[in-house]
Automatic annotation (TrEMBL):
Domain tRNA nucleotidyltransferase/poly(A) polymerase RNA and SrmB- binding: 168-227
SUPFAM superfamilies: Nucleotidyltransferase, Poly A polymerase C-terminal region-like
Start and end residues of each Poly A polymerase head domain: 22-141
Protein name: CCA tRNA nucleotidyltransferase
Pfam families linked: PolyA_pol, PolyA_pol_RNAbd, tRNA_NucTran2_2
GO MF assignments: CCA tRNA nucleotidyltransferase activity
Length: 394
């Protein structure tokens, strides 16, 4: 017996009261069975979209062309989709949809057995394709013929790796063979969709496993040129320990070429924030500094999340001493941030410095305080500036 959240239960009951079939399906059911609290709810029904919109007070016609209406109850969104058959896929992604009265036909069109289960409070679990066994055995397996499923919708190739990664499941042998054979179809899929699946793989708690599957299947090289360069760098690291918000930029930083990092991430439609952080990490990786100087430099330059960046670098560089050193330096007050330097550009303007000379002196001050954080007071800084000018004249 699955204890359904009240809102999806209300949807099923209301549809049943009006003589329509309705079942909980998809990822939310899979999550319930795995003991995970679902974030989204999907219901399949023989009711047409217009019936659903008539029966519920608050609805959004989110995908009405494909039979999907979002029902909102107590601010909980429940996607209600009419049983459908998918035919004649265009560009290995977009199907022609035909509504049906058959739950079996609706489940048959789905990607993987673990996503092709249905549940009704009175009828119990409905499992036409042995999805429950695959859940118990931790296997991702296509419904029916893997070649047909991937040929219909090539994005399923990446979704296969994504589900295996997130759930820490193995991939069924025939399904994996289909992934390898048809991986080039991903070139027909939009960069935005590839980005969405790849991001979920890289952000997962089992991300290194996903990175390995991308390598072993050849899918990684299909979607990212020179993927092997990243894998060669990462496979022996403890990448899973990197904080999730740093994993995507850390992954791309391993190209060790900031121009290439930026070009590839732009091509895959990553946002500016991730691209900026990836290029920063790339540059820090390439700097040949002593560990103490690198820790001080990162803390000095990075106003936001310096600890996260240092932690990420320690894993990528396989240098556990970095975090220990960071903690020690912080406890000893030997770290200072650029924003806390006691002299600013405006102070140097008042001293008569301007233009290029002002910029040069400011950089000299920053380097001085970076190396000597205990000297971060106005008198010591001015003394250092005066010393610089004397040496320059000599």
């Amino acid at each position: 017996m699955i204890k359904l959240k009240d809102e999806p239960m209300q949807v099923i009951k209301r549809l049943n009261q009006h003589n329509f079939k309705a079942y909980l399906v998809g990822g939310c059911l899979r999550d319930y069975l795995l003991g995970i609290t679902p974030q989204d709810f999907d219901i399949a029904t023989d009711a047409k979209p217009e019936d659903v919109m008539r029966l519920f007070e608050k609805t959004i016609p989110t995908g009405i062309k494909h039979g999907t209406v979002t029902v909102i109850i107590n601010n909980v969104k429940i996607e209600v989709t009419t049983f459908r058959i998918e035919k004649e896929y265009q560009n290995h992604r977009w199907p022609t949809v035909e509504f049906t009265n058959s739950l079996y036909e609706d489940l048959k069109r789905r990607d993987f057995t673990i996503n092709a289960l249905a549940y009704h409070p009175d009828e119990g679990l409905i499992d036409y394709f042995n999805g429950l066994d695959d859940l118990k055995n931790k296997i991702v397996r296509c419904v029916g013929n893997p070649h047909e499923r991937f040929f219909e919708d090539a994005l399923r190739i990446l979704r296969c790796i994504r589900f295996a990664t997130q759930l820490n499941f193995s991939v069924d042998k025939k399904t994996f063979e289909g992934v390898v054979l048809l991986k080039d179809l991903l070139k027909k899929i939009s960069k935005e969709r590839i980005n969405a699946e790849l991001s979920k793989i890289l952000s997962s708690k089992n991300s290194l496993y996903g990175i390995k599957l991308l390598y072993e299947s050849g899918v990684g090289e299909t979607v990212i040129p020179e993927y092997i360069k990243i894998y060669s760098f990462l496979h022996s690291t403890e990448f899973d320990l990197i904080p999730s918000e740093f994993k995507i930029p850390a992954f791309f930083a391993c190209f060790r070429d900031s121009k290439k990092v930026e070009d590839i991430m732009r091509d895959l439609r990553f946002d500016k924030k991730n691209i900026t952080l990836a290029t920063k990490l790339c540059n820090y990786l390439n700097f040949e500094y002593a560990t103490e100087y690198l820790v001080k430099k990162v803390y000095f330059e990075e106003e936001k999340m310096p600890e996260g960046i240092i932690s990420t670098l320690s894993i990528l560089k396989k240098d556990k001493a970095m975090m220990e050193l960071f903690s020690t330096l912080k406890a000893q007050n030997k770290l200072v941030s650029k924003k806390d330097v006691k002299i600013k550009g405006d102070d140097l303007l008042k001293l008569g410095l301007k233009g290029k000379e002002l910029g040069n002196v400011l950089q000299i001050i920053y380097e001085y305080i970076l190396r000597n954080p205990e000297k971060n007071n106005r008198d010591e800084i001015l003394k250092h500036v005066n010393s610089y000018f004397k040496q320059s004249k000599n």
